[in-house]
Specification:
Layout (H helix, E strand, L loop, with lengths): L2 H20 L8 H17 L23 E3 L9 E2 L2 H13 L6 E7 L2 E8 L2 E7 L5 E3 L2 H5 L14 E9 L2 H13 L8 H9 L4 H6 L3 E10 L7 H10 L8 E3 L2 H13 L8 E8 L2 H7 L9 E5 L4 E13 L5 E12 L2 E7 L3 H7 L6 E7 L3 E7 L24 E3 L6 E3 L8 H9 L11 H9 L14 H5 L5 H15 L4 H7 L7 H11 L2 H6 L2 H5 L6 H12 L1 H13 L18 E5 L7 H10 L3 E3 L8 E4 L5 H9 L3 E2 L1 H7 L7 H8 L2
Parallel strand pairs: 2-11, 19-20, 19-21, 21-22
Antiparallel strand pairs: 1-6, 3-9, 3-10, 4-5, 4-7, 7-8, 10-11, 12-13, 12-15, 13-14, 15-16, 17-18
Helix pairs in contact: 1-2, 12-13, 16-17, 24-25
């Protein structure tokens, strides 16, 4: 078959399977078969770039990271809706509609709690997508929207121009998985799926957005040059025929039926993959909408019914402490079963000690419980007049309930954490961090493999990694002999890492990569560092009092001493193998921007730091130099505006001694 015809055939088949999987939720081939077809197309396009088309499935991920988002003026404003909070207000809305002469049929749909965006198509091809912003002006997030596989890149039998509006959301299951992964990596957790969706859509690197598993549902035609529809529902049906994922809707001309449907939708909200924060009621007739018009803020033909949080009384039977993967102790109230928002609630989050103390929540108390955001049960207040006489204030335990290590409160927050280096509750996160690239850099030991090792009982501390049995590892699911050999080789190789990487791998609070390098260079060995007191540590540049205290406490803890002894016995290097090779760039702050052909920006930063420089991520008046590679953007422009010296890649390589040239002359430019 002709290669161009085969590429077209693959694109059509892959797009069809994307539609069946991500829109219809009815796949017809296996993931393996899909991946095989996609790889064939990728290889074909790599060998023949002229075959790449904008709607190719290979183009959903791979756009270059941006320096900033461009503004987009919406052709048709993305309006907000007037909120109503009670059946009475909903009846008032119905009365106002009828007073204007309409005999309405209403369209009811769930109000998705996500990020509103507009998608633009020209001659059936997706050309641009933008956030709502203030309704008039949004941000161009086209590359991130391309990564959402339920959004069609090309429409068949479409008009010359089409703009649709929808809601980008993160499915609840995806949100839970994302937060689990972030907790393993020690990253801040997203508060809710909406925040996660919004944060993902505003990532400058489309590859990050692609990894977040976002989805989108369409609910409106903003503009089209085709003949107008008579009703909104006819337009939605047309969009569905174009293969958009379209919002579910119901129709009725009776406001009483609409109210009943709203309450039923609220009770069944957990059947949806996305969070909903209400229900939208719209006049279905587009002619009636035109007659009703709009105010300066809202259309008169629609309203958003917001569900009030359902509250009920229950009794706190116990308060239990859970230890998270990052060591944070989280209290949970065990309450007498109570029905809320369609589900039976038996527990409620208490957040932290400050929350408990502020509300004075005690075991035995009668409390008012509601679902925060209609999802997470929480205690709103205590019914003091029903408090038992023997109820006493609750206080956190002084030691971890899992491993018995001392707990400590964060200096900058309300969290109380377990300080145990070998705490079982933190094991998954501890091992994942220990093996990560910037720590011990054990290739092949990602979260899935870590979890398999832990579940098999083969690893209880990081030191156990160096005692793994090859045959047992090979028997793990999806491992095999070759993978086991590769993993054990990577683990063995990590024994020779520099002390700085081991220090970072320990996960000591406030000891990151930079502090690890500074401490390794200053003390030369782990034993010497372990003997240092707070006064000696704080005398080092960039090591503050809080970090010094965390270090001394960590080395003094029995679990830390046990881990160090086990790692020594396993043959893990405890000495510094390198130190800064000079200080000729001391006192100069560099910012790297654009793409370098000779190395990554991370590697370039390490070379600068080895010469005493500091590397920052943003340009300010304190910046001493900007190194600009290909496709440098806003950081380069800001440096030029501030008159900050700029080096290209060749000048940078001369400065760090990796190209022949007058490095002193380059340095002199920076010291003027």
């Amino acid at each position: 078959m002709d290669i161009e015809m085969r590429a077209a055939e693959l694109r059509a088949e892959l797009n069809e399977h994307n539609y069946r999987y991500y829109v219809l939720d009815a796949p017809t081939i296996s993931d393996f078969a899909y991946d095989k077809m996609l790889r064939e197309l990728e290889e074909m396009e790599a060998a023949h770039p002229e075959l790449v088309t904008p709607d190719s499935p290979t183009q959903r991920v791979g756009g270059r990271a941006l320096d900033s988002f461009q503004q987009v003026v919406h052709r048709v404003p993305l309006q907000s809706l007037q909120d109503v909070f009670s059946p009475g207000e909903l009846l008032d809305f119905d009365r106002r509609v009828r007073e204007n002469g309409a005999q309405p049929e209403y369209l009811l749909e769930p109000k998705v709690d996500g990020l509103s965006v507009a998608l633009e198509y020209e001659n059936g091809l997706f050309v641009r997508g933008a956030t709502r912003g203030d309704g008039q002006v949004g941000e161009d997030v086209t590359e991130n929207l391309r990564t959402i596989k339920s959004i069609p890149m090309r429409l068949e039998n479409a008009p010359a121009s089409l703009i649709v509006r929808g809601e980008v959301y993160m499915p609840r299951r995806t949100f839970e998985r994302l937060n689990e992964e972030r907790e393993l990596r020690g990253e801040a957790l997203f508060a809710n799926p909406r925040n996660a969706a919004a944060g993902s859509m505003r990532q400058l690197d489309p590859k990050i957005a692609a990894s977040r598993g976002l989805d989108m549902v369409v609910f409106n035609i903003q503009y089209t040059d085709r003949p107008p529809f008579e009703t909104d529902s006819a337009g939605l049906d047309w969009l569905k025929a174009l293969r958009f994922k379209v919002i579910d809707y119901q129709l009725s001309g009776d406001m009483g039926e609409i109210q009943s449907a709203i309450f039923k939708l609220g009770d069944q909200r957990e059947k949806y993959p996305f969070d909903i924060d209400g229900a939208v009621v719209k006049v279905n007739s587009l002619t009636d909408r035109g007659a009703l018009g709009e105010t300066a803020k809202f259309p008169r033909w629609a309203a958003a019914y917001k569900y009030p949080p359902e509250q009920k009384e229950s009794v706190v039977r116990d308060i239990v402490i859970q230890v998270g993967r990052t060591g944070v102790l989280t209290p949970k109230a065990v309450v007498a079963p109570v029905r809320l928002a369609g589900t039976t609630v038996t527990s409620a989050t208490l957040h932290n000690q400050d929350f408990i103390s502020e509300k004075d929540i005690r075991i035995g108390d009668t409390v008012v419980v509601q679902k925060a955001g209609e999802i997470i049960p929480e205690i709103v207040s205590v019914v003091r007049e029903k408090r038992p006489e023997d109820a006493v204030p609750y206080r956190f335990p002084p030691v971890c309930p899992v491993c018995g290590a001392a707990v400590a409160r964060d200096e900058d927050g309300a969290h109380i954490r377990c300080t145990g280096a070998e705490c079982p509750a933190q094991l998954l996160r501890t091992l994942t961090h220990f093996a990560s690239r910037d720590a011990m850099d054990i290739e092949g030991l990602g979260p899935a493999v870590v979890e398999a090792l832990v579940n098999a009982g083969m690893v209880k501390t990081p030191a156990d990694l160096y005692r793994l049995d090859r045959d047992q590892v090979a028997k793990l699911d999806r491992m095999g002999s070759k993978s086991a050999d590769n993993l054990l080789a990577a683990i063995e190789k990590s024994k020779g890492n520099d002390l700085s990487k081991l220090l970072f791998a320990f996960g000591i609070r406030q000891v990151g990569q930079k502090a690890g390098k500074i401490l390794a260079a200053r003390f030369g060995s782990l034993d010497a560092l372990a003997q240092a007191g707070e006064e000696e540590l704080t005398a080092i540049d960039d090591i503050g009092g809080i970090t010094a205290r965390y270090l001394t406490q960590w080395f003094a803890a029995p679990q830390s001493q046990h881990l160090i002894a086990a790692l020594k016995e396993a043959g893990v290097n405890m000495d510094s193998q390198s130190a800064p090779v000079g200080d000729k760039l001391a006192g100069i702050t560099f910012v790297l921007t654009g793409e370098l052909s000779s190395c990554s920006r991370k590697e370039a930063g390490e070379r600068l730091e080895a010469l005493g420089a500091k590397v920052s991520g943003s340009v300010s008046k304190k910046t001493g130099c900007v190194v600009a590679g290909e496709a440098a953007g806003s950081k380069l422009r800001k440096a030029q505006e501030l008159g900050i010296p700029v080096l290209d890649e060749e000048q940078f390589l001369v400065l760090v001694g990796e190209r022949d040239g007058d490095g002193d002359a380059v340095l002199a430019r920076l010291n003027k």
